[in-house]
Design goal:
With 608 residues, the protein is of the alpha/beta class. Among the domains are: 4-222, Galactose-binding domain-like (Jelly Rolls); 227-316, Immunoglobulin-like (Sandwich). Helices cover 15% and strands 32% of the residues. Strands 30-29-28-27-26-35-32-31 form an eight-stranded parallel β-sheet. Strands 4-3-5-11-8-9 form a six-stranded antiparallel β-sheet, with no helix packed on it. A hairpin with a 4-residue loop joins strand 16 (227-235) and strand 17 (240-247). The longest helix is centred in the last third of the chain and has 20 residues, at 537-556. The two termini are 34 Å apart.
Length: 608
C-alpha cells in the first residue's frame, strides 16, 4: 500500500489475545485433557463450529489426492521453548493447542505469540498400513521446523508458506503408539524472512502475526517408490496437457498411465515414463475461464511389471494467459481474447483464525462473495493460502494474481537474500498447477526489493520465468519498475489511474480504492484506518461505482488491462473492505456493485 504509511506516525498497540471432495479420512482422538478456545476480540459465524474433532477435516491437497490418509489435525500437546533446549521426548507438555490454527489465533486455544515452541502428539498407524511407507505431511509451518519421531530427528524445513513431506518409516516402532514432536522457531519481524503483513504490534496496514503450524498435518501410506510431485501445463493451441511426474526416488522399470475425464466419460489416455514429459491429447477442449470454470479430472497410475504400485487423483483446467495487441495497445489475453480483469486485494486474515480460516466453508466464502460482487479476478496479497483456497478459486472461476510474501518493508537485511529466492521457488513449485493462478508477483511496493536492486530483481524474474513460462510475471507491483516484467503496474489511492501500455507490456492498476466505512459492532477496537471515508453503505456503493466507471474510461485510453480494488474485507483496524472483518455485514449493494463490474468486463470483450 501507499509509501507514506511506512513513514507516517505509527500507533503501537500490543494486542493481548486471552471439496467439495469425498475422501476416506481416518481420524484419531488426541489425549483427553482440558482445552478451550481463547477469547476472541471478534469472531466469525464459523467460530462456534470448530472443535477438536472437526478441525479442517477435508483432504488438504486436492491436486494430488490419495484415498487412504490419516489427519493429525486436532489437539496436540504444546509448550513454549528456549534456544538450545532438548526436545521433550516422552514428556507430557503443559498445554494443548488445536492444530492447525496458529498459536496467536483464539481458535488454537493459546491466543498469544511464541517465538520458539514445541508440539507433541502420539498416533497409531492402522494395521492395514503394515508394509507400506508412511509420509508425514505439513501444509505449512511458520517458520523453521524440526521434526522428531520416537526420539530421532526425522527432518527439518525452512519456510513459512510451503508444504513439505517426510518419510517417517525408518523411525517407527514395530507396534504401539508413535511419538511425533515438532520444534518451531519463528523470529517474526525481528528476522528478515518472508512474512507478509505479520507484525508483533498491530497497527495501520500491519496485522497480528502467525507462528507455528498453521495448515493441515496428515499422514498417508505409500509404496516404497511412489508418486511425489506433478507438473501440469496446458496448451490450448495444441490441444494437449503436458504431464511430468516425479517419484519419491529414482528407480527403473516403472511406467505411468494418465487418463483424463470429463465427468464420468474418458476423454484421453497416454502412457509415459517418470521424470519425462509426456503429452496427453485433449481434443476439442472445453476451456477454463471465470464464466465457465470447467475442470477435467485426471487419474495417474504408477505401474511396474503390469502391477499397480501407486495411484493419485488430480484435475486440470485448459486455459492460456498471454499478452497481445487489442485496440492498438498491449493487453492481457485469456484464451487469446482480451477480458478486463477487475477484482479485490485479498489478504486472507481472520479475526478468530488469523492466517487460518476457521472452516473450509469460511475459506470458500470470500471467493464466493467475490463472484457474487461480479469480480473475475483476485490478488492474493503477500500471503500464500492453503491448497484448498486455490481449489475453490479453480472451481468457482477466479483469476488469481499470486504475491510472494514480502520479507521486510524497511529493507533491512537479516536473512541472506538466497532465503527469499528459495521460498519464492517453493511457492511456485507448490501452486503452479492451479489454472486460476495467471500471474506471479515478486515484490510489493519495493518491500524487501532494495537489497536486490536491478540485477537481483532481474535474476528473480528470470527464475520465475524459468520455473513457470506459462504465466505472467509482475516483478514489482507499484513503485519500482525496472521494465523487465510483463506489466507496468501503478498503485493509486483513491484512483484509479493508468500507466501507458508499452510494447509487450500491459498496463495494470495493482491497487486503488481503499474506501472506508465503519460498521458499529463489527470493528476491531483499535484506531480506525482507511484512505477515504464514506458516511453510509449507499455512499460507499455510489463511490465504488464511480471508480469502476473511471476504470472503464482508462481501459479505452490509455489502455488499462486490469485493476485491483482495496479490498474485500476489513482487517483489524483497517476498515476499507466491502465486507466487515467478521464477514457478518456486506457494506455495499451487491447487485449494484455486480452490475458495475460486469459492465466493465463486457465493455472489454467488445473491444477489437
Amino acid at each position: 500500500m501507499r509509501k507514506w504509511l511506512l513513514k507516517g506516525a505509527v500507533i503501537l498497540i500490543v494486542l493481548v489475545l486471552a471439496q467439495g471432495m469425498t475422501l476416506r479420512a481416518r481420524v484419531q482422538a488426541s489425549p483427553a485433557q482440558q482445552w478451550h478456545k481463547a477469547t476472541p476480540i471478534m469472531q466469525t459465524r464459523w467460530f462456534d463450529e470448530v472443535s477438536p474433532t472437526n478441525a479442517l477435516p477435508e483432504y488438504p491437497r486436492p491436486q494430488m489426492t490419495r484415498t487412504e490418509w490419516l489427519t493429525l489435525n486436532g489437539l496436540w500437546e504444546f509448550a513454549a521453548a528456549r534456544a538450545g533446549e532438548q526436545p521433550p521426548f516422552n514428556t507430557t507438555l503443559n498445554q494443548q493447542i488445536l492444530v492447525p490454527y496458529p498459536v496467536e489465533a483464539p481458535l488454537s486455544g493459546i491466543g498469544h505469540t511464541e517465538t520458539r515452541m514445541w508440539y507433541r502428539r502420539m498416533f497409531n498407524a492402522p494395521n492395514a498400513w503394515n508394509g507400506q511407507h508412511l509420509r508425514l505431511n505439513f501444509g505449512a509451518v511458520d517458520w523453521q521446523s524440526a521434526i522428531y519421531v520416537n526420539g530421532q530427528r526425522a527432518g527439518e524445513h525452512t519456510g513459512g508458506y510451503d508444504g513439505f513431506s517426510i518419510d517417517i518409516t525408518p523411525y517407527l516402532k514395530a507396534a504401539g503408539p508413535q511419538e511425533i514432536i515438532v520444534g518451531v522457531y519463528d523470529p517474526g519481524e525481528a528476522g528478515g524472512q518472508p512474512r507478509g503483513k505479520q507484525s508483533f504490534t498491530s497497527h495501520e496496514i500491519w496485522y497480528t502475526s502467525t507462528s507455528g503450524i498453521w495448515q493441515t498435518v496428515w499422514i498417508e501410506p505409500v509404496a516404497p517408490v511412489a508418486i511425489q510431485d506433478l507438473r501440469l501445463i496446458t496448451d490450448i493451441d495444441a490441444g494437449m496437457l503436458r504431464v511430468t511426474v516425479a517419484l519419491s526416488e529414482q528407480a527403473s522399470g516403472y511406467t505411468l498411465n494418465a487418463v483424463a475425464f470429463d465427468g464420468g466419460s474418458q476423454v484421453a489416455s497416454i502412457s509415459g515414463l517418470p521424470g519425462e514429459e509426456f503429452l496427453l491429447p485433449v481434443p476439442e477442449a472445453k476451456l477454463w475461464s471465470p464464466e465457465h470454470p470447467f475442470l477435467y479430472d485426471l487419474k495417474l497410475t504408477l505401474l511396474k511389471d503390469g502391477a499397480v504400485i501407486d495411484e493419485v487423483g488430480s484435475y486440470f483446467g485448459m486455459r492460456k494467459i498471454s499478452l497481445g495487441e487489442v485496440g492498438g495497445v498491449t493487453r492481457i489475453l485469456l484464451n487469446n481474447h482480451f477480458v478486463f480483469q477487475i477484482g479485490p486485494l485479498d489478504q486472507g486474515f481472520w479475526p478468530d483464525g488469523i492466517y487460518t480460516a476457521p472452516t473450509d466453508e469460511a475459506l470458500r466464502y470470500d471467493l464466493e462473495m467475490e463472484k457474487k460482487l461480479g469480480w473475475n479476478m483476485v490478488r492474493k496479497h503477500i500471503k500464500v493460502e492453503p491448497e484448498r483456497w486455490y481449489y475453490w478459486a479453480d472451481k468457482l472461476g477466479l483469476l488469481v494474481w499470486q504475491d510472494m510474501p514480502s520479507a521486510d518493508a524497511a529493507n533491512k537485511i537479516a536473512n541472506p537474500p538466497g532465503n527469499f529466492e528459495a521460498e519464492l521457488r517453493a511457492m511456485i513449485a507448490g501452486r503452479r498447477n492451479h489454472p486460476s493462478i495467471i500471474m506471479w508477483v515478486i515484490f510489493n511496493e519495493e518491500w524487501g526489493q532494495k537489497q536486490f536492486g536491478l540485477m537481483g530483481t532481474a535474476q528473480l524474474t528470470k527464475v520465475v520465468r524459468t520455473l513457470d513460462p506459462a504465466r505472467l510475471v509482475n516483478s514489482a507491483t507499484g513503485w519500482v519498475d525496472y521494465g523487465i516484467s510483463n506489466v507496468v503496474d501503478w498503485h493509486t489511492y483513491v484512483g484509479p489511474e493508468s500507466p501507458k501500455p508499452e510494447f509487450r507490456r500491459a498496463a495494470v492498476q495493482g491497487e486503488f480504492g481503499g474506501l472506508g466505512l465503519e460498521v458499529e459492532g463489527h470493528r476491531w477496537p483499535l484506531p480506525r484506518f482507511a484512505y477515504e471515508w464514506q458516511p453510509s453503505g449507499a455512499a460507499l456503493t455510489a463511490r465504488y461505482i464511480e471508480l469502476i466507471r473511471k476504470a472503464q474510461v482508462l481501459m479505452q485510453n490509455p489502455g488499462l488491462s486490469a485493476a485491483v480494488y482495496t479490498e474485500i474485507t476489513d482487517i483489524e483496524h483497517e476498515l476499507n473492505g466491502l465486507l466487515t472483518y467478521d464477514r457478518a455485514v456486506i457494506k455495499v449493494d451487491v447487485d449494484a456493485v455486480r452490475e458495475a463490474n460486469q459492465a466493465l468486463i463486457a465493455a472489454s470483450e467488445a473491444l477489437k
